[in-house]
Every structure is written in structure tokens, then in C-alpha cells.
Specification:
homodimer; alpha+beta; 4-stranded mixed beta sheet; 4 helices
């Protein structure tokens, strides 16, 4: 079981702001998961992987794939109170779900450094 | 209602690694909260603030204060598979809880940039 959070790298968000958005996506996708998925993931150590996405469009395309695969997912659009404009797509959480199911969608993306 | 995540800034973690640790602390502290606190925070937009802490010792001291105040809290110690040594204290989540209760503990810390 794992959860992946894909970040819209094109925004170049500062590290603290980015971390808050990633946490938002992580919790949002977690809350979309079924109880069995939540429990299994929590028991196995809540593996989270943060990946780099190229753009808002790239994140939206990944979201469509996650929806089609019936995986829990959560897209974060910033409220725009601080760094970016309201409605800006900052990141996408997918999972917790089986490793293979998540990797089938995000397997070609690189780790965010 | 808000949740604060205090990062051990002395580690100088790369942004992606840091974001995963912050998400871990956020979810961990959320799961420690009572249902009423969880619900109220979710309904009010899941406000999260990421702050800079000076060291592992600083985070442990904040954790003691949070425990004494009976706030939900979760300390993240990295499993050590990637960037840092196993057991390294990377961040601390406090809340969701009332703004004032959290600020009484973390009010002097600066935003992580």
C-alpha cells in the first residue's frame, strides 16, 4: 500500500508552502479511501511518496486516470490567501491503494527533490 | 481551529522529503484528535501552518507542552530509509485544536519559508 502526492512543480512554491499543500492532498485523499484501505495503509507505516508533476494540466490528466481506476484521490486548489492565485492547482494526492495500482498511473514521474 | 506542523530546520531536508514528513505529522496528529475536533477542522477548511523549529530538542520541548495541554500531537521520527539516520526527529504536528490553544505553544515560531 502506498500514497503518492504529485506536486505542480511549475509553480516553484517555497518549501513551507509546498509542504502544507502536500499535507492537504495527503489527508484529502486519505479521507476518500475506504476504511479497509485506510487501515491497511496505517498499519503498514503510511508510505508516502512525493513526486514532481510538470503543470496543472499534467495533474488534471493524472486525476482523470485515478478516477477511472477508482482510486481515492484529492486535488488541491489553493485558496489563494498567501503565495498563489485562488484556484491554482498545487498538488494531487492518489491513494492509499495497492502499490501497483498507484504506480500504473504515476510510475513514470520522478521524485520531487 | 488549526493545525500546526513544526519542522526541524537544522536537518536542512530537501523539499520533497520535508513535504512527506510534514504530511506524516499532519495525518498522525489528525488521527489523535477527537471526532468533534476532526469534524470541526475539516468543515472549516483544514487550516495548516508549517513553522520552523530550531532542533530536535526544540520539537521535543514543544511536544511536552502539547501533551500537557492535552492537544492532539504526533512526532515524526524518520525510518531512515533515505536521507537521514533512523530515529531522527523531523517534525511535530499539533492539532487540530482551537487557534488559541495551539498558538499558546507555537506562537513565537516563524513560518517555514
Amino acid at each position: 500500500m502506498k500514497q503518492v502526492i504529485v506536486v505542480n512543480e511549475s509553480l516553484g512554491l517555497p518549501c513551507g508552502k509546498l509542504a502544507a499543500q502536500v499535507a492537504h492532498a495527503s489527508l484529502g485523499a486519505f479521507l476518500q479511501a475506504r476504511y479497509a484501505e485506510q487501515s491497511e495503509w496505517l498499519a503498514s507505516g503510511m508510505t508516502k511518496v512525493v513526486l514532481a508533476g510538470a503543470s496543472a494540466e499534467a495533474l488534471l490528466a493524472l486525476q482523470e486516470l485515478a478516477v477511472a481506476a477508482e482510486l481515492p484521490e484529492f486535488l488541491v486548489q489553493d485558496a489563494g490567501r498567501t503565495v498563489v492565485a485562488a484556484g491554482t492547482v498545487t498538488c494531487l494526492g492518489i491513494g492509499p491503494a495497492a502499490d501497483q495500482a498507484v504506480s500504473a498511473i504515476t510510475g513514470t514521474l520522478k521524485l520531487l527533490t
